[in-house]
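Q: What residues go here?
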């Protein structure tokens, strides 16, 4: 355990831009520094850690600035670069104009001759590149609200259609939050099957995390449950599902959208994990703060 503690402190002192830190006995839980508001508050006040993160982001930005991109609309053709494309996407005003209103804009990332794809299709979108822009904003914008603490995981969730002779659909619970869970869907075909469902039950396989939670929470969380509405009608799921590169999609289930008869049982193991590891990570963030003050 002392080795794990030391490694976590090293991770917090010099965060990798993309890699997460593995937690727990099972090795199935992960923590990324951008998913802790406590750590991000510390980064804003720690010039050394902030510099290390910014240096890594700058390297990526310079690479992207040298990667050409060509945009064609009915009016004209623009030569740009991949860095600028993501800047447009993250600017709310330009995003509405370029990505939501004008469906005639096409993009090529290879040559000026093409091949071109519709900008709205999002096939050009790379989640890893997008993350770098998000991280930059997190450490730069002092008025930006931070995310609540969350854990990465890989749990199988079975979607069981009811009332129709349709096979079950398997997706992955990829993130745990104190107010819900994030589902990762690996293909458009699977997404379309989920979209077509009118009634379903959901069942999470906690066998990967059996060592991480109490037996009582394990039993409760393993029960099947249903939602108060079709999953696409919940929150911003329908809107968010359109922003995909066609390879991976995400849906969110808030605990408040789970049927009252089983809501508390479904929440039990997730809240237990969040409480346990948030305290664990916060303890090590405090140690990093203390050691950096001594070094200064």
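A:
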């Amino acid at each position: 355990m002392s080795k794990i503690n030391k490694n976590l402190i090293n991770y917090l002192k010099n965060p990798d831009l993309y890699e997460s830190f593995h937690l727990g006995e099972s090795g199935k839980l992960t923590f990324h520094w951008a998913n802790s508001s406590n750590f991000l508050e510390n980064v804003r006040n720690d010039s050394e850690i902030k510099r290390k993160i910014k240096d890594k982001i700058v390297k990526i930005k310079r690479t992207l600035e040298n990667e050409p991109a060509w945009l064609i609309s009915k009016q004209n053709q623009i030569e740009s670069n991949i860095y600028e494309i993501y800047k447009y996407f993250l600017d709310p005003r330009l995003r509405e104009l370029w990505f939501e209103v004008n469906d005639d804009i096409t993009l090529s990332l290879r040559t000026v001759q093409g091949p071109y794809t519709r900008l709205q299709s999002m096939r050009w979108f790379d989640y890893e590149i997008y993350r770098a822009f998000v991280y930059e904003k997190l450490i730069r914008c002092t008025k930006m609200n931070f995310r609540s603490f969350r854990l990465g995981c890989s749990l199988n969730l079975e979607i069981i259609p009811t009332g129709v002779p349709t096979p079950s659909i398997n997706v992955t619970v990829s993130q745990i939050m104190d107010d819900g869970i994030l589902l990762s869907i690996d293909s458009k075909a699977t997404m379309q099957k989920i979209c077509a469902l009118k009634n379903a039950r959901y069942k999470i396989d906690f066998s990967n995390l059996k060592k991480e939670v109490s037996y009582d929470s394990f039993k409760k969380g393993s029960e099947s449950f249903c939602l108060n509405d079709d999953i696409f009608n919940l929150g911003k799921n329908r809107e968010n599902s359109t922003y995909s590169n066609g390879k991976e999609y995400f849906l969110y289930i808030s605990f408040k959208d789970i049927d009252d008869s089983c809501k508390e049982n479904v929440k039990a193991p997730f809240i237990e994990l969040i409480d346990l590891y948030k305290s664990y990570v916060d303890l090590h963030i405090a140690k990093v703060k203390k050691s950096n003050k001594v070094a200064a």
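A: Context that may help when evaluating the design: The mean pLDDT is 90. The CA atoms of residues 158 and 170 lie 5 Å apart.
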